[in-house]
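Just curious. Protein, please.
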Amino acid sequence: MEERKRKNGVLTPANLVTIFRVVLTPIWLLGAELSVGGTGEFSISAFIVFVGYAIISLTDKLDGYLARSRNEVTSFGKFLDPIADKLAVVVALCFLLEIGMTNAWVLLVIIAREFLVSGLRMVVATQGVVVAASNLGKWKTAVTMVSICGLLLARSLPLPAADVMANVSGVGMLVAVALTIWSGVDYFVKCWPYLLSSEDEA
């Protein structure tokens, strides 16, 4: 096992998929900026944008599957995978905000939660503690990406299908925001004892 890890280094199939996701995200944004959608008729360019983001979202599951099935979970992958997830979500939400298909509060809540969790991780890490993430975080990411995909699909559809898809995806985004807040609070509660310990020592 150790021999295989040394041989593969960081360029395992799972990590290559993650790197591909990171590289693909700004390319996707460029294509999204150049696409035309929301005209009330079917838009092939907007549909391609939707397909591109769906691919980015699905590769999130693919790299995790590859890492576990091949027993090639690496520190590099643990570092890059959550960054790739956050990059894909924030970039897509910024685009949707730009074209008026989401609310600034959605973006604020999601980014604020990431700042909170990142800060808490750094604080508890100084005490040599790793707080296990709950399934809430995974559900939060999944629901957010599905909702984004729905909004992007709505942008490519003709009326009235576009309105129906946009409304359903909007509800999904509200659920994603609720899960984002819940998972942030959950992580804060788990870290609270270590925050008190750190303060006492100071």
